[in-house]
């Protein structure tokens, strides 16, 4: 059975957090009540009550097989959503791709996973393709190191238990302000990443350049860290 990947952040409002857990689980893959309980860890009665309530508000719906799936209410709300990070990325990522000639991505952390929220690839040549919406582990890769370096201590402890890097590596990332990796997330792929901060200075995302090791080298930071930091600063100023 496929497990729900990543948990939404806690607001401290129990019923709201549980409802969001249900929404995230169903968004990952349509499911019946038993599968919903397995993914969320919620008691059967609680999961059923929340799913039915979300169905009443049209945030969930059931298909012909009786499986819950995202409902039409989500699509109706989506056009009014405003994401300043993605709006800023649309202005900054094309230039970074042009400078580097490599794939560029923007990641956000969700629980113990990172989600690609923006991605652009070079028009030609071998490339590292990461689709928007892709969920990647936080245990490998430069983007993971950046997001984990500024994550809360509990998340750090949880991820570091299975990570391909150490707590010392995270200290180094915080010290120099960027991270790099070579053949860590995927064989033959190298990447370098930097933190993106909001107006208050909080790290909210990681911007990354990735490509074949043959082009990027085993120490891609030496080549692209300065341009990446400039792009991260440009995003920060737009936020």
UniProtKB/TrEMBL annotation:
Q: Name one GO biological process term.
A: negative regulation of DNA-templated transcription
Question: Pfam families, from UniProt?
Answer: HTH_IclR, IclR_C
Question: Which Gene3D superfamilies has this protein been placed in?
Answer: 3.30.450.40, Winged helix-like DNA-binding domain superfamily/Winged helix DNA-binding domain (1.10.10.10)
Q: Which domain of life is it from?
A: Bacteria
Q: Where is the HTH iclR-type domain?
A: 13-72
On whether Nucleotide-binding is a keyword of this UniProt record, the answer is: no
Task: Recall the GO molecular function terms of this protein's record.
Answer: DNA binding; DNA-binding transcription factor activity
Q: Which residue range or ranges hold the IclR-ED domain? A: 73-239
Record SMART domains: HTH_ICLR
Q: Which organism is the protein's source?
A: Rhodococcus maanshanensis
- Alphabetically list the UniProt keywords: DNA-binding, Transcription, Transcription regulation
Q: What lineage does UniProt assign to this protein's organism?
A: Bacteria, Bacillati, Actinomycetota, Actinomycetes, Mycobacteriales
The name on file for this protein is DNA-binding transcriptional regulator, IclR family
């Amino acid at each position: 059975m496929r497990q729900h990947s990543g948990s939404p952040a806690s607001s401290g409002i129990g019923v709201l957090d549980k409802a969001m857990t249900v929404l995230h689980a169903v968004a990952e893959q349509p499911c019946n009540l038993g599968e919903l309980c397995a993914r969320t860890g919620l008691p059967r009665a609680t999961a059923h009550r929340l799913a039915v309530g979300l169905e009443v508000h049209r945030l969930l719906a059931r298909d012909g097989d009786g499986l819950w799936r995202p409902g039409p209410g989500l699509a109706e709300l989506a056009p009014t959503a405003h994401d300043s990070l993605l709006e800023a990325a649309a202005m900054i990522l094309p230039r970074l791709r042009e400078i580097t000639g490599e794939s560029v991505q923007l990641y956000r952390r969700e629980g113990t996973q990172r989600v690609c929220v923006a991605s652009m690839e070079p028009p030609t040549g071998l490339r590292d393709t990461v689709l928007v919406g892709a969920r990647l582990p936080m245990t490998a890769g430069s983007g993971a190191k950046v997001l984990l370096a500024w994550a809360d201590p509990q998340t750090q402890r949880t991820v570091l238990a299975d990570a391909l890097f150490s707590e010392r590596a995270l200290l180094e990332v915080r010290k120099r302000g960027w991270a790099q990796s070579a053949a860590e997330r995927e064989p033959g792929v190298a990447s370098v990443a930097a933190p993106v901060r909001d107006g208050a200075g909080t790290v909210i995302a990681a911007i990354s350049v990735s490509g074949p090791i043959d082009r990027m080298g085993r120490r891609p930071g030496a080549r692209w860290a300065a341009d990446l930091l400039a792009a991260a600063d440009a995003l920060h100023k737009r936020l």
